[in-house]
Automatic annotation (TrEMBL):
Residues 107-133, 146-161 have a biased composition (Basic and acidic residues). GO terms for molecular function: acyltransferase activity. Residues 58-94 have a biased composition (Low complexity). Keywords: Acyltransferase, Pyruvate, Signal, Transferase. Coiled coil: none annotated. It comes from the Bacteria. Residues 18-72 form the DUF4124 domain. Residues 1-29 form the signal peptide. It comes from Sphaerotilus uruguayifluvii. This is Pyruvate/2-oxoglutarate dehydrogenase complex dihydrolipoamide acyltransferase (E2) component. Residues 40-161 are annotated as: Disordered. It holds the Pfam family DUF4124.
Amino acid sequence: MFSHFTPRRLLPATTMTLLCAMLALPASAQWKWRDAQGRIQYSDRPPPTAVPDRDVLQRPAAPTAAAMPAPAAPASAVAAPPPASAASAATAAGEGRRRQAAAEQEAAARRADEERQARQRGENCTRAREYARTLESGQRIARTGENGERQFLDDGQRGAELRRAREVIASDCR
């Protein structure tokens, strides 16, 4: 007869019922008092000041912002600066994160530049060593002159080129 009410089918319904009941608890009245005519009153706000303390039957567990009346400020009072809010704290934290990200990005750019320069020095070193070996081998080296014809290096030019290659090796090959 009740075969369609299995525990598997009851579980979601029971869970939803309990969830709805738990969500409704904060909406229940927190204050309970007896008014001047003797009737019981319920509210989420405190009773009027005319109700004596002995007629207040139930109070909330802790005073809430809605239950506490706001103090009246005198008209001549100068407005105080607003306290630091969560939004300004979040803005400050976001600014700190932005600064940190910018510093990290700058450091990464610096590292990339240093790596590029190191790679370039390595390539210069390799070329200078090969050129120095070629110059030291005694092999004839020719260049193209201004007028487009081949010119061979003499011993003085070869020595100057070898000094320059050794300077590059000394500076870039560390």
